[in-house]
Amino acid sequence: MRIVGGQFRSRALSTPKGRSTRPMTDRVRENLFNLLGPDACTRAVVLDLFCGSGALGLEALSRRADACTFVDVGQAAVAAVARNCDRLGLTDRVRIERRDALRPGAWLVPPDGRGYTLIFVDPPYKIPAEEEGRRRLARMARRLLDLGCVAPGAVAMLRAEAGVDPGGPWEGFDLLDTRTYGTTTLHLMVKHAPGKFTRRSPTGEGGPGG
């Protein structure tokens, strides 16, 4: 697995040992960032939930994001993120939290008071596939809004298995786009910000599996 664009393009990333994570392929990640657009990461404050190796947040940092908070409950995952951040010289721009991403609390609020502008949510496929999991994701999103840590116009990406309805858009968000690449579907949502974004019709697009 490698970073596909920006300052650290082609740099290899450590991944957690074992089978507890399901990394997004390099090509799907490239398609995601192309979909977000060339300026989406500039000065962004990023939240990477269920971060695994941290590839999504690191990709954003490589593309000029200011800071990223990585959250994962797995010890192997947070260790891999820490190794990757250290190797890339990014330790001063990141926070790494070993916590349950489905239970955000005050610990998640950025210390400088800036709201997250780009949020990646990449849970195990079984979570958005099950009714209780969808409810928990919706509560998580509602809690993030209640904490006041999501900036107006922030874009959130939810990854789910192709063919699964993850129950979005979440309260407080509008659907921005939906794209399918092989066995992976990316659902993009935007926090209500009248006049800043226009809603696009969902489309499908073939591609490699995630």
How would you sum up this structure, described in words?
- The chain is α/β, with parallel strands linked by helices and 210 residues long.
- The chain has a single domain (27-191), classed as Rossmann fold (3-Layer(aba) Sandwich), CATH 3.40.50.150.
- The protein has helices at residues 26-36, 55-62, 75-88, 126-129, 131-146; strands spanning 45-49, 67-71, 94-97, 116-121, 150-161, 173-181, 184-191.
- The chain has a 7-stranded mixed beta sheet with strand order 3-2-1-4-5-7-6, covered by helices on one side.
- A hairpin with a 2-residue loop joins strand 6 (173-181) and strand 7 (184-191).
Number of domains: 1
Report helical residue fraction. Answer: 25-40%
Q: Outline the biggest β-sheet.
A: 7 strands, mixed
Mean pLDDT: 89
CATH superfamily, called what? Vaccinia Virus protein VP39
Strand content: 15-25%
Strand arrangement within the widest β-sheet reads 3-2-1-4-5-7-6
Structural class: alpha/beta
Overall spatial form: globular
Give the class-level CATH name.
Answer: Alpha Beta
Name of the CATH architecture = 3-Layer(aba) Sandwich
Q: How many beta-strand runs?
A: 7
CA radius of gyration is 16 Å
Ranges with pLDDT <50 over ≥5 residues?
194-210
Order of helices and strands: HEHEHEEHHEEE
CATH names the topology as Rossmann fold
Number of helices: 5
Distance between the termini: 12 Å
